[in-house]
Each structure stands twice: as C-alpha cells, then as structure tokens.
Design goal:
The protein has helices at 19-38, 50-61. It is built from two helices and no strands. The chain has a single domain (3-61), classed as HUPs (Rossmann fold, 3-Layer(aba) Sandwich). With 76 residues, it is mostly helical. Keywords: Chromophore. It holds the Pfam family DNA_photolyase. One of its GO terms (biological process) is photoreactive repair.
C-alpha cells in the first residue's frame, strides 16, 4: 500500500481513497490472500513507497531475475 494514495489530491485536497474504497481494497486483499493460501501460495503485502518496498524485497530475496509492474496513469 502506497501511502501517497491516501493523501489529498494536489488540486483540491480531496482524498484519493475514501473510507469505503479503503475497506473494499482491504477486503479484496484479504480475500486474495486466503484464495492463494488455499492453493499453496501466499501474498506479500507491504506499506510504503513501491520504489523503496520493491528494492528492499529484491535485496531480501537475493536472486530475482525479473520484476513486472504497471505505472499508474496520472492526471494533470
């Protein structure tokens, strides 16, 4: 979870993620984790800036050959 997604928007200060959306996201992540667990896998969840969190995970894991990601489309 990127803390920047829970701050106000740059133009008007409206929250990017309100309480209902946050609850939906948390419930979705919990459901995904439970589904993966039933299939013998797991889900890594971290809080922080992705550029820092991913770097730290790669360092912890040691032998990472590829990283896939998508970039959020930002409105001006």
């Amino acid at each position: 979870f990127d803390p920047r997604h829970y701050l106000g928007t740059p133009c008007y200060g409206f929250p990017k993620t309100g309480p209902h959306r946050l609850r939906f996201l948390l419930e979705s992540v919990k459901d995904l984790r439970e589904t993966l667990k039933k299939k013998g896998s797991t889900l890594v969840v971290r809080k922080g800036k992705p550029e820092d969190v991913v770097r730290d995970l790669i360092t912890q894991l040691g032998s990472v050959s590829a990283v896939a990601f998508h970039e959020e489309v930002r409105e001006i």
